[in-house]
Write a structure and sequence with these properties.
There is one protein chain. This protein is an alpha/beta fold and 655 residues long. The protein is 44% helix and 15% strand. The chain has a seven-stranded parallel sheet, sandwiched between helices. A six-stranded parallel sheet has the order 8-13-12-9-11-10, with helices on both faces. Strands 14-18-15-17-16 form a five-stranded antiparallel sheet. β16 and β17 form a beta hairpin. α2 packs parallel to α3, α13 (339-347) packs antiparallel against α22 (504-530) and α25 (601-609) packs across α27.
Length: 655
């Protein structure tokens, strides 16, 4: 497609007369059959690259997106432009999912959006394997890199999915990639260096300011800032509780403000988002959950009330300001108080060595015929490892060839007959009738729902599981039955020889310790960035391997001669050792009354720091006295105190 035809398509479908920087190059590369990596700043039109290309590719464009809200915003945008797009996600009704699948099969849906976790769904894989796909789009593609700020282990499997589905083209999209992350992403998908398109990070209309501010002064400073400027604003905080408190404080000061975070129900979040988009709410006080995919061009203020999680997060969040090209202010009320919270997020995700040994032991003792089956939630509870680091652990085991993923299946299928079995059978020929009779025979009905005994069906009737699932999906698609599937179970081939290797637990523990240190170093880089004596815009661009920004922008606090020096507010509460000992005893007794497990050193530390873990969630530890007692202490300090309470460094008894 020549340039003139491409511009005509852009105008016809999207109403734009010109491309933004980098967009045309990416679209042309894709249409020429070249997989590409696009690194554009937040709000620079990354999504249009695949949206326009999809209209000129012969088959489906499959988009992997990490956030449900992001999917819905993109789909609404496309549908408003008359472009057929849909998603398969957890918020949909059964009927809605069936309709989307039917539209995809019929070629009436050009763009399908899913989460990466959807590929583990047995029924989705059976479905997507029957659909020709022209392009795989990976949004927030930095999630695939262990060097990235938001690594998601399931993303590591996307190259394999691409190969299995025979998808010829890939487009990776991100707003934040350091040089190392950029190279890692391109290598995993065999993208040539010449097909990496990176536009500049420098935004001349954004004024960046670092304002040293003790915690006690933040509220007053925030009100002054919001009153001194006009236009919509976002105030970013770390914790959900803080979002609610700050929004309430702003309303008391006569400002139009609402909080927004993942702890709210989806209807309330959507209502608040719409109020903000329509201008009925001036300021949103939000956790990081707010802003992904939000296309509001006139945001005049972005304020970080707390430290962001990383330089990458900071770049994304300030990038939501001034997308209309007009001047916008981006300020951070900075001190070192938030370091403890940021570090705790990191430490809470590091599995204990004994927890890793539990997972290895489960594989050894529960494998049958060289295969191991597991359900993530059950394994998380057994090992006391949170689900995200547990996924990371399993992926690391895959990379070490200890286990090889074979397939995933649902342990439970339930169906409700919308038409009688006799009516259903009458619609098929004799061979299919006979097969369906075999299936129905193993579906005893209890009141309304029937539960399929898959094992007895496969053994007694000697039929293939894939054929059963295909048949059930067909019956559901035609409206004969309503189908539910639960308990996703992953099956791995076990390499027993490798699993018996010495030092395995130690090497896996070492991987997580190194990962932990990487994340702590990322936080240290963040603090150093806010205290730099170099231009903030130039420093930010340089972090992302972009050397196009001017060395002195003239519109940041450093260029105005205001070099920040951050301090710790004198608000920390001194917690004596006896209080900590009593809190630990409370937890030990409480856990003993609920579960037959020993409380480890790390579990005590996480309880005191207010960090969740599977065990603490199961026993509802938040209700206990002493939970979050040491929230103001650094994690290593908490550990030192707890270890001193353990006689002979024994983590079983606490005297």
């Amino acid at each position: 497609m020549n340039s003139e035809a491409l511009h005509l398509s852009l105008q016809q479908h999207f109403g734009f007369s010109t491309f933004r920087r980098g967009q045309q190059q990416v679209v042309e590369q894709l249409l020429e059959g070249n997989s590409s990596l696009a690194i554009f700043p937040t709000g620079s039109g990354k999504s249009l690259c695949y949206q326009l290309a999809a209209l000129h590719l012969p088959h489906l464009t499959l988009v992997v997106s990490p956030l449900l809200a992001l999917m819905k915003d993109q789909i609404n945008f496309l549908q408003n432009k008359g472009i057929a797009a849909g998603s398969i996600d957890s918020s949909q009704s059964y009927e809605q999912t069936q309709q989307v699948m039917q539209d995809v099969r019929n070629g009436q849906c050009k763009i399908l959006m899913v989460s990466v976790e959807r590929f583990k769904n047995e029924r989705f894989r059976k479905f997507i394997e029957t659909v020709p796909v022209s392009l795989l789009v990976v949004d927030e593609a930095h999630c695939i890199s262990e060097w990235g700020h938001n690594f998601r282990p399931d993303y590591l499997k996307l190259p394999r999915y691409q190969q299995q589905l025979n998808i010829p083209l890939v487009l990776l999209l991100t707003a934040t990639a350091t040089k190392q992350v950029k190279q890692d992403m391109a290598k995993r998908f065999s993208i040539e260096t010449g097909h990496i398109v990176q536009t500049g990070f420098y935004r001349a209309n954004l004024d960046l300011s670092v304002i040293p501010c003790l915690t006690a002064d933040k509220g007053r400073q925030l009100v002054t800032m919001l009153n001194s400027s006009e236009g919509p604003g976002i105030v970013y905080v770390t914790l959900q509780k803080t979002a609610d408190e700050v929004a309430a404080f702003l309303r008391q000061q006569g400002l139009s403000a609402q909080s927004y975070h993942a702890g709210m129900d989806s209807d309330k979040r959507e209502r608040i988002q719409q109020q903000f988009m329509q201008g009925n709410v001036q300021t949103i006080v939000a956790t990081i959950a707010f802003g992904m995919g939000i296309d509001k061009s006139d945001i005049r203020n972005v304020v970080h009330y707390d430290l962001p999680k990383s330089i990458e997060n900071y770049s994304q969040e300030v990038g939501r300001a001034g997308r209309d090209g007009q001047a916008a202010n981006c300020s951070i009320l900075a001190n070192l108080d938030g370091l403890t919270t940021l570090e705790n997020f990191v430490y809470g995700d590091t599995p204990e060595p004994k927890a890793i040994e539990i997972v290895l032991g489960d594989i050894k003792s529960n494998q049958q015929g060289g295969q191991w089956e597991t359900q993530l939630n059950a394994l998380s509870n057994l090992s006391n490892i949170r689900q995200l680091p547990l996924k990371t652990l399993l992926v690391q085991m895959e990379l070490l060839n200890l286990i090889v993923p074979k397939y995933a299946y649902f342990a439970e299928f339930k169906l409700r007959f919308i038409q009688s079995q006799e009516q259903i059978l009458s619609c098929f020929d004799r061979d299919r009738q006979q097969f369906l009779k075999q299936v129905f025979k193993h579906c005893p009905v209890k009141k309304v729902w029937a539960t399929l005994d898959m094992n007895s069906l496969l053994i007694e009737e000697q039929v293939e599981r894939g054929r059963v699932i295909t048949a059930l999906d067909y019956l559901a698609e035609k409206g004969f039955i309503e189908l539910q599937s639960k308990q996703n179970t992953e099956v791995f081939q076990v390499n027993s020889a490798e699993l018996e290797g010495t030092g395995l637990s130690d090497s896996l523990s070492s991987y997580f310790r190194n990962k932990e240190q990487k994340e702590i170093s990322r936080i240290e880089s963040l603090v150093a960035f806010f205290q730099t004596d170099q231009c903030l815009h130039a420093s930010l661009a340089g972090y992302f391997d972009d050397h196009q920004a001017p060395p002195k922008c003239g519109h940041c606090s450093v260029c105005r001669g205001l070099i920040a020096s951050l301090a710790q507010s004198e608000t920390s509460t001194n917690i004596d050792k006896e209080q900590i000992a009593q809190a630990c005893k409370n937890l030990k007794q409480h856990v003993a009354s609920k579960l037959d497990v020993l409380v480890s050193t790390e579990t005590y530390c996480r309880f005191l720091a207010g960090i969740t873990s599977p065990i603490l969630t199961r026993v509802r530890a938040k209700s206990l006295g002493g939970h979050n007692l040491c929230a103001d202490m650094r994690y290593h300090q908490i550990r030192e105190v707890v270890e001193s309470l353990m006689p002979n460094n024994n983590d079983v008894t606490l005297d």
